[in-house]
Automatic annotation (TrEMBL):
It comes from Aspergillus lucknowensis. This is Uncharacterized protein. InterPro entries: UPF0311.
Length: 173
């Protein structure tokens, strides 16, 4: 019997979500993690040139949020994000992802009182993973509805803009 070939990851999209400055700290949830809701105020989803994602250029609009459950016992943020936008051609995009991020020192410094000098971090610097589901109305990108994705995150800062960014990979044979 042949040894199975493990799945491969192909980097197909880049996702950036601008984070709001006034999260709602809801408090402890049923004697467990703490709930925090952070508004998303825009961003983008872009295809990587030379991949199946090439040609996608979507702008995310305000109205999405991240419903985080923060578990102090493991220092882990459990993510539940929904956001939406439109492509340059007028199509619609909906993104829903769940995942988790270990809240390390870089994350604490980035979000601490909206530091006046937050630092962009590197992909792979954090233990931060998501499993996004993406819906796109453009027929050219219908394949995303039947594709498994995984993403890794980092913090992004530029001027007054603070965001989360993800490299999004499709899982293939």
């Amino acid at each position: 019997m042949a040894t199975p070939t493990p799945p491969r990851l192909n980097h197909v999209f880049h996702l950036r979500a601008h984070i709001g400055k006034d999260p709602l700290n809801v408090g402890q949830y049923r004697s467990g993690p703490h709930r925090r809701i952070t508004a998303l105020e825009g961003g983008f989803l872009r295809g990587i040139p030379g991949t199946r994602g090439e040609g996608l250029d979507a702008t995310l609009v305000a109205g999405g949020s991240d419903w985080i459950l923060f578990d102090e016992s493991t220092n882990t943020a459990h993510l539940d994000v929904r956001t939406q936008g439109h492509t340059k051609d007028g199509g619609c995009v909906y993104i829903h992802y769940q995942g988790y991020s270990r809240v390390d020192e870089a994350a604490q410094q980035f979000r601490k009182s909206w530091s006046p000098d937050p630092k962009t971090t590197e992909f792979g610097q954090h233990h931060w993973w998501i499993a996004p589901n993406i819906e796109i109305s453009d027929p050219q990108f219908k394949w995303v509805a039947t594709t498994q994705f995984i993403g890794r995150g980092r913090w992004f800062s530029e001027g007054d803009l603070q965001a989360v960014e993800y490299e999004i990979f499709e899982v293939t044979h």
